[in-house]
Amino acid sequence: MKVKIGEAVLELVEGDITQQDTEAIVNAANEQLIPGGGVDGAIHRAGGPSIAEEARKYGRCPTGSAVITGAGNLKAKYVIHAVGPRYRDGKHGEPELLASAYRSALNICLEKGIDSVAFPSLSTGAYGYPLPEAARIALKTIISFLKEHGRPRLVRMVLFGKEAYQAYEEALKELAAREGLS
Predict the structure, then answer these.
(1) Which phi and psi angles does 12 have, rounded to 5°?
(2) Does residue 99 sit in helix, strand or coil?
(3) Ranges for the Macro domain (predicted)?
(4) Angle at Cα 45 formed by Cα 166 and Cα 14, nearest 5°?
(5) With a threshold of 0.85, does the pTM exceed it?
(6) Is-catalytic flag, 21?
(7) What 3-state class would DSSP assign to 72?
(8) Is 164 in a helix, a strand, or coil?
(9) What are the structural domains of the chain?
(10) Contact between 168 and 12 (Cβ < 8 Å)
(11) C-alpha–C-alpha distance, residues 163 and 144, integer Å
């Protein structure tokens, strides 16, 4: 599914983020920037040790923030490491921190002139964020950013599995109708 926001495109695909041909891919990182499981582990395995070596120079990355490294052996040029929140009950700043993680990654794209980026669904794996809520926050944040900045030209949500894709598709249909996007 795709929607246009000005000159930019927001697209949903089901697939493997490590196989994306966008300029940058976003990693669902932890604050220590140490290779973990899930998306993080897959990116580090596919990209090789240079990603972790470069990330180590940052020391850590607070929840809601993002940092950038090279992409090692991946098709992408860059990996943007965004740290989403661990979900407790949604009443401990989780929505704001999740939106901030997406915005931080998108701001890095602007700063570096990156025109295409692929995101996973941040915080919905091991961090336990409920998919429908996370999808609304992610998409609302991305749409708002694209309306304001017009860049990156392509933001692709790469979703792992049918359940994730369906949650994002439902949220995008709802937001697109509300925002008048096609």
Answers:
(1) -110, 130
(2) helix
(3) 1-176
(4) 15
(5) yes
(6) no
(7) coil
(8) helix
(9) 2-179 (3.40.220.10)
(10) yes
(11) 25
With 0-12 CB in 10 A as exposed, 13-18 as middle and 19+ as buried, what is 178?
exposed
3-state secondary structure of 24: strand
Tell me, what's the pLDDT at 48? 98
Task: Answer yes or no: are the C-beta atoms of 64 and 85 closer than 8 Å.
Answer: yes
Residue 79, classed as helix, strand or coil, is strand
Residue 29: the pLDDT is 97
Residues 6+ apart with CB under 8 A from 107: 66
4: which strand partners?
9
HSE-up (13 A, CA, CB side) for residue 95:
11
Query: How far is Cα of residue 68 from the mean position of the Cα atoms in its chain?
Result: 13
- Token look-up 């941040």 returns 122
Which of the following is catalytic: 16, 40, 89, 115?
A: 40
The confidence band for 180, taking pLDDT boundaries of 50, 70 and 90, is: confident
CB atoms within 10 A of CB 167: 21
Whose CA is closest to 3, among 158, 175, 145?
A: 175
